[in-house]
Structures are given as C-alpha cells and as structure tokens.
Specification:
With 478 residues, the protein is α/β, with parallel strands linked by helices. The protein is 32% helix and 26% strand. It is globular.
Amino acid sequence: MPRDLPPIEGIRHVHLVAVAGTGMGSLACMLADRGFRVTGSDLDTYPPMSDQLRDSGIAVAKGFAADHLRERPDLVVIGNAVRRDNPEARAVLESGIPYLSFPDAVHQFFMRGKHSVVISGTHGKTTCTSLVGWILVHAGRDPSILVGGVAQNLDGSYRLGEGEHFVIEGDEYDTAFFDKAPKFLHYDARSLLLTSCEFDHADIYDSLEQIQTAFRELAKSIPADGHIVAETDNPAVSEIVRDVQANVEGYGFKSSALWRVSDVAFDRDCTQFTAWRGDERMARIRVPLFGRHNVENVLGAIALCHRLGVDVEASGEALKEYRGVRRRHEVRGELGGFMVIDDFAHHPTAVAETIAATRARCPERKLWAVFEPRTHTSRRRFFEEAYVEALAGADQVVIAGVFRQEQVPEAERMRPDVVIEGLRIRGLEAEFIPDVDEIIEHLVRGRSGDDVALIMSNGGFGGIWDRLLARLRKLEEK
C-alpha cells in the first residue's frame, strides 16, 4: 500500500481514475453515500454504471488529464485498468497526492471490523455474491455487499448495511500497476466461497498452475475459525483447498461432495432441485435461474450461508424472490417472437453453460449465439478450439469483430474465421460479421418467428441489444 495515507477522518475529496468500471463505479457511489465529495474520470461510460454514477451526483470527466487534479483531492483511487504512463497517474505520482488501489480503498473505508465474506472463482462470482448477499438481507442480517454487476434485488451494485458481514466479489486479477497481487488478497477474508478454477486472464497468468497458486494463497489465508465452501467436483479446486487451516465443505453434483443436489428440473420460469448435506435432505429449492452452472452457484451460496447461520429453508424462501443480476442471462425484451438475452459469458466454459441454460429455458426456439471476443483472453488464440466446442450448442452462430484488435499482436490474435470454419465443419450455420449493424440485419433476415438471440459480451458491444429490439419494433409497426 502507498505510504502517507491521511487519516480517513481527514479525507473530504476522493478522486477515482478509471471510475466507470463496475467495481470502481460502485466504490465511488459508496463513498458518495458516506458523505465524501467524489469526482472521477474515464475514457467512456455506458449503462448501467453511467446511470448509477449520475444518480449519485458524481461528475465524470471524459478522458485522462493532469488538469483533472487541479483541485488537489485528498486521496486518489487508481483503477487496475490504469497504466503507469496514464497522464493522471503520472500527475498523482509527481504531485505527492496520496493514492490507493481499488481493493485497498474498499478495505480501508468499508470493511474494517466486518466479517469479510469473499466470493471467488473463475466463473460465477457475481451471481454467487448477489445470491449470498440477498440471502443474508432476507434473513435480516443487514449485510454490506459489493457485487461486480447490478443486482436486481439491491437495485444496484452495492449495499451498505450495519450488520457484521461484508460480502464482496473477490477477483483474481491483479490490483494495480503499483501492486501486482490479486485483488482478493486485500480483503482479509474470513469466509470464502470458491466456485471454480480454470485458465483465464492470459495477459497476466501464463498457466492454470499460476492461477491455482493465487487461489491457494487466498485459501490458506482463511483463519482456522473461518470457513471455506468449495466446488470440489473441480479437481483444480480440490487441490487448492487441500491442507488449509480453515474448515472446508465441498459442494457439487458428485456423491463425494458434502453438499449435493438431486431431482433437478428446469422449466421456462425457474429451476428446482433438492439440496442435501451428507445424507440429510435439507430442502427443495426453487429459484428463477437457469442451467447446471447456476444449480451449482445456488448450492454453493446455500452452503456458505448455512455456515454463516442461515438455515437452508430460510435460504430457500429468499431464493424464491431472487431476481438475478443484470447482464447475467437477462432478458432485454421480446418482439415479434424474437427474445433477446444479454449475458456476460466470455470464457468458453461460461459460453457453453450459458448456451445450455438457454436451451433448457427455451427448448423449442431457434437459438442464435452472438459472441464478441472482448476480454484479454478471448481476443487471443488460446481458446479457438474450445470456442468451437462451446458455440456448437447453438443453432446459428455469429462472431463479432475482435474488440480493439490492434492491441493484440496479429500472431497472437484470435482468428474468428478459424472458429467459424470449425463450426461449419460441424454442420452449423456460422458467420463472422464485424459490424454491429450488419449483425442486426443478419439476425432480422434469418428470424423464424420463434427465436432467441443469446448475445454474449463483457462490454458495451455497441448497444446491440437495444438496437436489435428497436429494429424489431420497426418491423412490427409496418
């Protein structure tokens, strides 16, 4: 942590560099809620975070410039997307203004004295954070919560409560240009939910083993009187939680897991399953989520909340009212027999599971999978074959242009045409269409009257969801 941090009681004005990300934007709003004057800067903003910042009265300067610090804030929080050569970052370093990373700021301002409940893993972090947080809210525990997305039950991405628990999404990505440790190591976790472990973040990790090492450090940091709930069907996760000091409870579909499920049933409105702990039947669960991966997410959340003192029946009552997270299998609208679903999936495993969940939800409909390679890993060639496998569950596939492809050397860059050819060999109709308007027209021309478009991207994707719905609306009006 940078030195010379002023006492929190002496801080009045906080400025955030790269404020528009989900985490940084949420922190900005939390600080504003606590009475700090908050300003920020970023290259661009888009919903839902732009709406949340506006509603909190936070002025966001466009772009990065030393001039944004002319009022000399008491503290600057620097996001992990910011490089050392960023003009605002350089100005902070040269001026001597105190600065913190995002996770250190969250811990310093909000988590001290709380029971830190960290939700981590390659997949499912955001959903599980919102699930655990909502169960605790419903149980009257009044937790604080910080989610990497907009949780519908919270009407936002965070909640500041007076209860003992702080539930936070623990990211394995590095902290800042001045601190390369994973973010989740900054939260002093006492309870941990570990959902999964696969290779990802190819820009900072070279192998699955490196990622396992980071997660193992997190697991070993949980104190002996703390708790770990881990998806032990995954061999990499089982290895991570071996020989740790905290108590470990495994969950999954396999009979070897302490927490497991039976009698899983999907329909258009919800998923149902029976939850077991060992040989004890705990409850029949009904939740408006879809897919095998979300059965695991819900089971993990239930198991962790059980360790935190919420009985499973009470968790089940909360789950009936769970409304999900925006951009996680979110139905953005339906017009003319064409349902448009927005999902954050980007890793091949998440893509495959999300397509399977959509099939379970809409088994009779023609399923379009529209995928934008946008993350550091998906823009590279690591997973080309895996994307063929993942996308093959759809009826028709569209791959958009590689986001900011100029940032990735051509020899390393994902080749959409290679993925498309692999899909065509399998007999699927698949197209590489770089332009968003052309994608929309392709979908409109090929519609059957009973379609679902599953649009997968971890970014703004040119506002494709609303633009597609607007195009469909015009067709209906003719």
